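Aim 2 progress update. The chain analyzed this quarter is reproduced below.
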Amino acid sequence: MNVFDYFFKETKGLEKDFVLGNKETISFKELYNNSLKIASFLKENYGTNQNIILINQNSVFFITVYLGIIKSGNVCVPLDFSIEQGNFNFIANTTESSIIFCGKRINSKLELNIFRSIIDEDSFEKIVKNNSISDFLIDFDSENLAEIIFTSGSTGKPKGVMISHQNIISNTDSILGYLDLTEDDILLVVLPFYYCYGLSLLHTHLKAGASIVLNNTFMFLGTVFSDLSAYKCTGFSGVPSHFQMMLKKSNIFKSRDFPDLVYVTQAGGKLNNVFIEEFVSLMPNVKFFTMYGQTEATARLSYLPPEMVLRKIGSVGKAITNVVLKLMNEEGEEVKIGETGEIVAKGGNIMLGYYKDPQGTNEILNDGWLSTGDLGIIDSEGYIYIVARKMEIVKIGGKRISLREVEEVVLSVAEVQDCKVETIEDDLLGESLKLVVVIDELLNQKSVEKKILARCRSKLALFKIPRLIEFVASISVSKTGKRIRSTN
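Predicted C-alpha cells:
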C-alpha cells in the first residue's frame, strides 16, 4: 500500500479543516484532491522513482507537495530551509535530483541552477488549478522508498536515511496506539516537517482525522500561547528547548489557563528532570509523554506513559508496539539490570539503510537490528534510561549536530592550532555548544574569536554555532589520540 492511501483511507472525503490558522486553511478533502493533482503532474511529466527535493517552511504548500510526491511513486527529499549551500549542493548531487519544489524566499537564498525544474508557490497554484487527476496503481509495494531524510553524519557529511512506505505506516500505527488521537484533537505544530519528529505529527494527525495549527514563529512565545487558546488546541509537541523556553522565558505560560490542552509530547533529546517536574506540577491534568526515537527508526522507538512520568522520571520508557529494544554490551550479549549497554532496535519502522552508503549502513544495521549509538541501562521493571551518547552527534533543540563538522570549520581559520567542541548545560536549550580552542599565546584572543565566529556564520547554520568559546594551552587527548570531550 502507498502510505498516501493509508493516510486518507477514512479521511479523504472529510469537509473539516485539516490545517487551521489565520494565514491558510485546507480541508482533508481539498488536501486529498490537490495532492493527487501534484502526483498526477509528476507522474505525467517526470515518471516515477525520481528523488525530488522539497524545501520550505511548514505550510499547505509543503504538506500538499510532500503527499503528492509520495503518492506519485517518487521519493521526497525534505530539507531544512536554513541549510547551508555546501550541504545543499552535496545532497542535490548525491540524490541526483533534477526537480525541486521550493518557496520563493528559499529560491532567493540558494543557488538552484543545477535543477531542470524549479517549482515555487505560483507554479504550484497553477498545477493545482489546471491539472487533472490520473489513475494510479492499486497494487503498490509498501517496501518502496518513500522519502530520504538527511541527518548529520559522524564525518560531518549528511547521511540520507531511506524510509519506506511501510516504515511510515508501521511507526504511525504504533504512535496512534498510545496517543489515542481522535477527530476532535487539534495539535499546535512548532516542529518543522523536514525533521522526523515533525513529520510524525503530520502523519498521525492526518491518519486520525485530527487537525493541526502551524506556527513557524516559536521564538515569539506570545504567538504560541495565543494559538493554543484561539484554536482550542488539545495537544502540543516539542523538543527540550521548547519546554524550557515556555517555562523560563515567559510568565504567561505559568499564569495562563489552557483548558483545552489534554496532552503534550516531548522528544528530540533529554529534558532535564526539573523541567518535567515543574511542568507536571503546573499542569497536573495534562498528560505528559516522554518519548525517544531516531530518524533511522522513522521517528519513534519508545515512550513513557504519563502516569509513570514522575515515578520513572528520566526514563524514556519501554518500546512502542511493533518494536523490540535490547541493551547489548561490547561482546554482543544482553546486559543485566543496572548494567550499561548500547540500545539496539528492531521493527517495521527501521530504515532501509543510508542512501548510497553501504559501509555506513553495515556499521549501523546488523540482521535488521539498528545500533542507536546511545548507551543506557534498564531497571527491574523494564524501563530504559539513557546515560550517554556513543557517537559524536548531539541534539540541540531537537536538531542533530556533528561535532566534527563544526571543528572542521573552526580549524579552517589560520590562527587556530587545534580545537574541540563540547556540549554544556544551557538554561534555555538544555544543551548548547562550547568551543575549546588552542592558538599561539602571542595572538590576541578577542581578534581570533571574531574571526572564528565570522567563519562559523558563513559556513554553518545558526544552531551549529558555539555559544561559548574558551582558549586553552592544549587539548586533552586519550591514549589513542582521540579528543576527550565533556558532554552532558
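The two ends are 42 Å apart (CA to CA). The mean pLDDT is 92. These observations will guide the mutagenesis experiments scheduled for the next reporting period.
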